[in-house]
Amino acid sequence: MASAVRSFGSAGPVVFLVNGTLSGGAGRQDEIKLETLAESFRAMGVTAINLGAGDARLGRGALLSAIQLSEDRFVSTSLAESPTRPAPPYALQGPFLVGGISAGEQTLSSTLGENPLAPDKAASWLVSQAKRRHLIPILMLADGREAATSLAKKNPDLKLIVYSASGEARMEMVGGTALITPGENGKEIARVAYTNGEFSGFAGINLGPQHKDDPVVSRLYKDYLSRVSDEKLLDKLPRVKTAAFAGSAKCGSCHRKAGETWLASAHSRALRTLELDGHGRDPDCVKCHVAGLSSTFGYRSRMLTPALAGVGCESCHGPGKAHSLAPIATRMAKIGPSPCKTCHTPNTSPGFGFAAYWKKIAH
Amino acid sequence: MAALLPKRTVRIQWNFASVPDSVREAIETARDRAFQQVGIGLTDISYEEVQSNPDIKIGFVRSIPQEAGQPFPPGAAFMFSELPGGARLEAVIALERGGLSSTPADFQNEIQYALGSYFGIAANRLASTLMARTDLSQRIPNRSGAAESNLINQGLKIADQLRAAVEKRRTMEPAIPQIRLSDSILQHGEVVQGQQVPMSVQVTNTGNAPLALRIKPDCSCVVTVPSMRLEAGDTGLISVVVDTTEVSGELQRTLVVLSNDIDFPVKEIPIRFKVVPRFRFVAPGGDTLLMRDGGVGADVYLLAPADRPLQIKDVRLDGLPGRATFEAWSGKLAEPGLSEPEKERKGYKIKIWLEDSLPAGRALATLLVRTDDPKFDVVRYNFGAQKGIVAVPDSIYLGEISRKPKTFSFLLSRPQSDFEIVKIESGNKNLAAKSKPARGRWEHKVTLEYDGKAELGKLETVLTIATNDPKQPTIRVPVRGSVR
């Protein structure tokens, strides 16, 4: 993302906006993620980051840290004026006044101990502020297309609304207001040009390995991984009591052919793939690359639980120690494709098709 | 007109006049790689370098002017010509794009695009494929696949047939498959998460030749037939099933239909509908429980859509000592997460009780709920518990700091219970700390003043905070940063 955005700068001034939930959860890893993203966005020269209810779940203290690391780039027009308001209502850059509204403004405000401003009121206030200063109002909206369309119709003076949506980046016009979404999960940048009073030249820029890694952001990301590892977050995950695990080698001692198929598959090397990339102690990733991470008997580390490294038999079939001790008395249940989808989700495995993928591991 | 048809031996005239010597070799290497890529799977294609009467002219300029309304200048320009005697295609490739020097991958991609265009393949959006070009600088070249090779092969065969027909002065009716879709968008009413949503779109071939389709959804949650072939005049049905197990909210996906209709080689059909979450947890008291002497309790509500209720089989608390029980419930409740005010709802009330055995600090717990829905047989609610005075966040991250003074703040809090900070000691001489109450005497804002004089490298220290609470007389807060 960073290197793609830096290359835009040669064509003229850039206004770089970030909309949507950055962290996604309420745990310590989410706090670290939010801090890293805030610092990265500062390094990328982001103009404004919309403060959403999703990130406000982390609490006032975590947000304060992120706001500082972003050097005050967070905005929220959803919070009424108060001396303790953690973020300003808008940001200014060039001819633009950029505000941010969040769905769930009640959640946002109550978490932060502030008073909410309903989206309609916030949007019309933003437009009035822009008019007063002879600036062009842009709104970041942490809500979907329906809400964006409604706000555009009620506030035709809004020139641009950036909203959240799944799927690809797209643009449409509602009256004179351009509605844009960059799509989901930071996979694309939505880029538009502002010329002669209009937004045009829309393109969705796919962010893949074809773009060079930005050295500053790469460094910050490495620091993120190191913090996650140093704070031993993998060891602190909540675990539930389940039946005990046997390990894939044990399964393979009887189920030979299935064991050989597994050894030859990418599943058996799944943890190694992460470790080579520095993610071997990252709970976000490890949960789908080992067996039983959420179990008190499941994977802990290579040293303590070597038999559970990788996506093993029990990752899909469930704990099998009892079956290994008494195979006839304790049968394992037959399973279908649904365990695959626990990890091969649309987000992590967008090209997943059970029929094609099953051929690689059929047993 | 036969002269405009693509040939198997392509005559290319290169103009390197504007190319500095330092870049020439990179371009020539990129050219050779482009020839290899576009030639994959095609044994009878060759390229000839000529000085006149080319089929393709490829030249280079320093940069191409930016067009009005475009955010940055193009990386290349492609011009087809139907003038007799001239090149069929002229490509001009910029040596600079977006303020950066074009990379070898950029040169290779543009040359490949020129060759593909000459052979009659349309541009497309699928990243990293032969005909997916961008004006931004790339570092990885695009690759040709079986689909592109097949298209080139077919195009050349058709060109051969046309040339032969022209030579024999035969009348040929052009084979023109035409795609017509019954819907330009697939929509559906609201569904509850977990449902399989069947949809379909009719496709008709209104042309006079077979229509070949490849159908690609942009999400693994959309399952459809991968391909279809329709004879002239036939109608078929593209059936689609959207699995909503992993999605909720406004679903926006796209079905991409690739065809051999030269006017519409790519059609994108948006799929749009709203998915109502299968279940929601609502915690009116917030996601963090504040521990008191003897323990703390809280109510969490599990709600499901009224027309598809969930039955709880049992609940369990994991991660912290305590218990959870549940009971059927109905009453008035607001759902701030959905921006819904208080209204009558039905579901379950889950009573959580945490024992007072936590050390001071924060901890996470999980509520596991087993339900009667086989797709959502176990649903989880993660929440936190706080005991005593805690630093928020509990480890302070200064980020990358320079040799300039800077100020940081964090909060020390114990909601609903006042306390005082007696003294703060910093373990690092370059960091000084002071505090003041923030929103009442239950929350204090601690400010760190960094003097800008720390040595380069890691900065790690601990703040020792003395309070007036005899149960927590000292609190240690790690601080970490990096001086660059």
Relative strand content of chain A: 15-25%
User: Secondary-structure element order of chain A, as H and E?
Assistant: HEHEHHEEEHHEHEEEEEHHHHHHHHH
> How would you describe the oligomerization state of the chains in this entry?
heterodimer
| Side-by-side strand order of the widest sheet of chain A | 4-5-6-7-9-8
Q: What does the overall shape of chain B look like? A: flat
Q: Averaged pLDDT of chain B, please?
A: 91
How can the largest sheet of chain A be summarized?
6 strands, mixed
Low-pLDDT residue spans of chain B: none
Q: What characterizes the major β-sheet of chain B?
A: 6 strands, mixed
Q: What is the strand content of chain B?
A: over 45%
Features:
heterodimer, A: 363 residues, alpha/beta, six-stranded mixed β-sheet, three-stranded parallel β-sheet, 16 helices, 11 strands, elongated, B: 484 residues, mainly beta, flat
Describe the protein.
The complex is a heterodimer of chains A (363) and B (484). In chain A, the strands form 3 sheets. A 6-stranded mixed sheet of chain A has the order 4-5-6-7-9-8, with helices on one face. In chain A, strands 1-2-3 form a 3-stranded parallel sheet, with no helix packed on it. Chain A is elongated. Chain A is of the alpha/beta class and 363 residues long. The mean pLDDT of chain A is 90. Chain A has 16 helices and 11 strands. Chain B starts with 8 loop residues before the first strand and ends with a strand. In chain B, a hairpin with a 5-residue loop joins strand 30 and strand 31 (443-450). Chain B has helices at 21-38, 104-118, 146-167; strands at 9-15, 46-49, 56-61, 76-80, 89-94, 96-97, 100-101, 179-181, 186-187, 191-192, 196-205, 211-217, 222-224, 227-230, 235-243, 249-259, 266-276, 280-282, 288-290, 296-303, 312-318, 322-335, 340-354, 361-371, 378-387, 390-392, 396-401, 406-413, 421-426, 431-437, 443-450, 457-467, 474-483. Chain B has 3 helices and 33 strands. Chain B is mostly beta strands and 484 residues long. In chain B, helix 1 (21-38) packs across helix 2 (104-118). In chain B, the strands form 8 sheets. In chain B, strands 9, 10, 12, 14, 16 and 17 form a 6-stranded mixed sheet that branches. A 5-stranded mixed sheet of chain B has the order 2-1-3-5-4, covered by helices on one side. In chain B, strands 8-11-15-13 form a 4-stranded antiparallel sheet, with no helix packed on it. Chains A and B meet through helix 1, helix 2, helix 4, helix 5 and strand 10 of A and strand 16, strand 24, strand 25, strand 27 and strand 28 of B.
